[in-house]
């Protein structure tokens, strides 16, 4: 773990609902996300990530555009995707868009590459789901070559080849900060190490400590490849309120609505109150007062040796004002408390 843990926030631009239950218009959700990013900058959050989706329950399909709007109203916070679905996009265009964001934001752009947990983008952009793995593997290989920011010569079977091709714009620093999002496959862990790209673990269920073997595998792979150490990050959902009871009560109906909607598509049983409470007490839901959430984040950081933790603060129709309050508490109380706990601790903090 680096000397100072970075603490970020992620959102998918979940479509919220008004007091009468009507869905908030997509445009208003997008404007709300911009305001949330601006607040995150103001209260000291290190990173703000916006996910890419192509379905009715999420408003953001073009994260880089939303991030550019946030960049124009902020000064210090780093801005990135969470994640960019590389499999159904073009690596050259992804690099160009985020290199442009990097220039517009004064070097604050990041891109997190992944396959995504939804598949709507594949038919939308004309890709065959039977090539799910091959598309990501080949496009990641090209993106890794683009990160060198020099002439690119590359060939593959699913995209046109490049011969000594320059790609513009280039970043001022010569390096676009890039992560690979990993859901828990050893092969994905080793691949991230092989390309020399930092790894971000999506831990959305179960005990966070169960991902320690993946963190250790990544570090061992880097050592065996004779590569320098690289950071590991974690992305997990959560919610803040002044008290534990208020946070749990406030989040539950909205988290359940999101979880059950996705569950119906995937054959899961509806989420019970007991399952929700279990995930908060012993799993990967960071819900509660600032002290409770800070202790849980510090414990995860200590157990896994991570360099960054990103809290996914949006959840289904959870109202915008509740998310703004959560962001404020995260920045003003959780972040300094996490760093205080880690600085004080010479032994692992209990989860």
Short structural summary:
By secondary structure, the chain is α/β, with parallel strands linked by helices. Helices cover 44% and strands 16% of the residues. It has one domain (6-344): Alpha-Beta Barrel (TIM Barrel).
Structural features:
alpha/beta, 351 residues
Task: Describe this structure as you would to a colleague.
The protein is of the alpha/beta class and 351 residues long. It has a single domain (6-344), classed as Luciferase-like domain (TIM Barrel, Alpha-Beta Barrel). 44% of the residues lie in helices and 16% in strands. It contains eleven helices and twelve strands. The protein has helices at 26-42, 63-71, 91-104, 121-124, 132-146, 186-195, 212-224, 244-266, 273-282, 290-304, 320-344; strands spanning 6-11, 47-50, 78-81, 84-85, 109-114, 152-154, 162-165, 177-182, 199-202, 232-240, 286-288, 308-312. Strands 1-2-3-5-8-9-10-12 form an eight-stranded parallel β-barrel, surrounded by seven helices. It has a two-stranded antiparallel sheet with strand order 6-7. Strand 6 and strand 7 (162-165) form a beta hairpin. Helix 1 (26-42) runs parallel beside helix 11 and helix 2 packs parallel to helix 3 (91-104). It is globular and about 60 Å long.
Q: Could you say what the CATH topology is called?
A: TIM Barrel
Give the C-alpha Rg. 20 Å
Enumerate the strands of the largest sheet in spatial order, edge to edge or round the barrel: 1-2-3-5-8-9-10-12
Report helical residue fraction: 40-55%
Largest sheet: 8 strands, parallel, barrel
Overall shape: globular
Pfam family, one: Bac_luciferase
Organism: Naasia aerilata
Domain Luciferase-like: 24-304
Protein name: Oxidoreductase
């Amino acid at each position: 773990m680096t000397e100072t843990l970075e603490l970020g926030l992620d959102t998918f631009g979940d479509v919220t609902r008004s007091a009468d239950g009507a869905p908030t218009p997509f445009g208003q959700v997008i404007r709300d996300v911009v305001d949330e990013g601006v607040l995150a900058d103001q209260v000291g959050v290190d990173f703000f990530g916006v996910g890419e989706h192509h379905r009715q329950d999420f408003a953001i399909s073009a994260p880089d555009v939303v991030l550019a709007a946030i960049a124009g109203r902020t000064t210090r916070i780093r801005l990135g995707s969470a994640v960019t679905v590389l499999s159904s996009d073009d690596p050259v265009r992804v690099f160009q868009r985020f290199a442009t964001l990097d220039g517009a934001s004064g070097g604050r752009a990041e891109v997190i590459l992944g396959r995504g947990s939804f598949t709507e983008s594949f038919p939308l952009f004309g890709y065959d789901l039977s090539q799910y793995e091959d598309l990501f593997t080949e496009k990641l290989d090209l993106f890794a070559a683009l990160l060198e920011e020099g002439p690119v010569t590359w060939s593959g079977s699913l995209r046109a080849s490049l011969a000594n091709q320059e790609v513009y714009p280039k970043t001022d620093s010569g390096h676009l900060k890039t992560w690979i999002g990993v859901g828990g496959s050893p092969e994905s862990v080793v691949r991230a190490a092989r390309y020399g790209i930092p790894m971000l673990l999506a831990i959305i269920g179960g005990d966070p400590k169960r991902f320690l073997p993946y963190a250790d595998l990544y570090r061992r792979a880097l050592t065996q490849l004779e590569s320098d150490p690289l950071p590991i990050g974690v992305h997990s959902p959560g919610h803040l309120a002044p008290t534990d009871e208020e946070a749990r009560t406030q989040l539950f109906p909205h988290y359940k609505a999101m979880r059950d909607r996705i569950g119906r598509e995937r054959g899961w049983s509806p989420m019970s109150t007991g399952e929700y409470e279990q995930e908060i007490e012993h799993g990967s839901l960071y819900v509660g007062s600032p002290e409770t959430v800070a202790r849980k984040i510090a414990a995860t950081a200590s157990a896994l040796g991570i360099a960054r933790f990103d809290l996914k603060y949006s959840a289904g129709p959870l109202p915008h004002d509740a998310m703004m309050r959560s962001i404020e508490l995260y920045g003003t109380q959780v972040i300094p408390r996490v760093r205080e706990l880690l600085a004080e601790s010479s032994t692992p903090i209990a989860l």
